[in-house]
Amino acid sequence: MSRSPRPDLSLRQIPQVRLTPRLQQSIKFLEMPLLELREHLEELLLENPLLEEESPSPEETKETLQDDRQEERQEWESFQAVQPESLYSFLLFQLRLHLSDDLTLAIGEEIIGNLNEDGYFLEDIRRIADAYHTAVETVEKTLAVVQSFEPTGIGARNLSECLLLQLGEGGGRLTKQIIQEALDEIQDGRNWIRLAKKLGCRREDLMESIEEIRMLDPRPARNYTQETTVYIQPDLIVHRVDNQFRLELNHSVLPRVTVSPAYQKLMRDPAAKEFLQGKLSAARWVVHCMERRQETLLRVGEFLISWQQPFLQEGILRLRPLSLQEMATHLHLHPSTLSRTLKGKSIETSRGIFPLKYLVPSGIGEKTGRLSSVQVKEEIRRLIAAEDRRQPYSDVQIVHLMEKQGIFLARRTVAKYREALGIPSRATRRERGGLHVEYRD
User: Fold this and answer.
1) For residue 322, pLDDT beyond 70
2) pTM of the model
3) Could you tell me which residue, 2 or 299, shows the higher pLDDT?
4) Rounded CA gap, 134 and 138, in Å?
């Protein structure tokens, strides 16, 4: 008679990563855009008597405002004069950086004008296509361009798409799977074990991914209204000194927080000691989070201006391709940390203010020597801008012209980039007697 196997009881150690409240706060500091972080710090300064603002010295203020910025001041002032004043105009500003064709610009404006107060696009794409006498695919491609803008998640058609747009390259496979398949179940907050079994993962991994999802913003436009004035304040500022690029943090916006030296005297009071110990610990952690945020942001920024020095010197056609994984390898940082560092941050250069993500363009092809997608798009734009308006180039002709410059692309890749630029087909350009396409340096 066979015996059933006896249950085997054993203890195992399983390494787990828990998002403690302090770790969540540290991630939150890293992720916050500049103006939102300033408001958060101001709240913390009011709440914690042991946290105080450190005023910069007059010498520091003078140095920040003078010397190195003299050459850039005129260009910056003219740029600043046209800064967007609402979410609508901020998005239009980005739209005009990416598109130049009249049709797709008009479609883009229609999409932006139909975003709801949370930043979602809930209109019928077919209605817009009919209104502009164009294909549904053209509207969808224009929507994809809008969805690449800041604030991240804008233009999503549902919550799932909004969260996936925010994750970008930084999200894990399980986190994306939960967003795509189980959002309703995590909102209910019931039976985590059953959900983990359904997704084929451990409960601990499930809870970690849920914490990551909870840190995303389901309402990307909530900090904006049509009446709100939105000032673009760069997180980083690039100065050019003797043909060298120097980077600094924008210290003019954030209060410098420090632990009040008065705590030593206050701690002598036994009645207040227990209360103050908690406040002291919280104040020290806020200072630590700020230091880590600024160190990480400066480190990432310095790597980017070193990597993109040809772009800073010569213009958009010299923008080099870069992926989060390549950055992670160079900087020894996790891709999710880099994704959070780039999110919602901007950098001021002599060529204007750009989202940090703009300096991390995707790359294509081995034969091309991995040109950035931005470089390839701009070269296509340049060719079409210079074409004979009576005999516009076909996509195949553009392929051959690019090959002469050592850029090897498939015809479908040329078509994809041309459409992403909002430039219609050869037949449409011929019907219109050519097309005005601006070439930007």
Assistant:
1) yes
2) 0.56
3) 299
4) 7
Mean pLDDT of all residues in 152-171: 86
Domains with residue ranges and CATH for the chain: 85-230 (no CATH), 236-359 (no CATH), 363-431 (1.10.10.60)
Q: What is the DSSP string of 145-178?
A: HHTTSSSTTTT-SSHHHHHHHHHGGGS-HHHHHH
Closest to 422 (Cα-Cα) out of 441, 438, 402, 399: 438
* HSE (side-chain half, CA atoms, 13 Å) at 3: 3
The bridge status of strand 363-364 relative to strand 371-372 is antiparallel
- The whole-number pLDDT of residue 187 equals 65
Phi (first) and psi of residue 69, to 5 degrees:
-100, 5
| Tens-digit pLDDT profile for residues 250-298 | 988 888 898 888 766 676 677 667 777 888 888 899 999 999 999 999 9
Residue among 143, 155, 164, 156 nearest 212 (CA): 164
Residue 11, pLDDT > 60, answer no
Record the tokens describing residue 317, joined without a space. Answer: 């056609």
Backbone angles phi, psi at 352, to 5 degrees: 120, -175
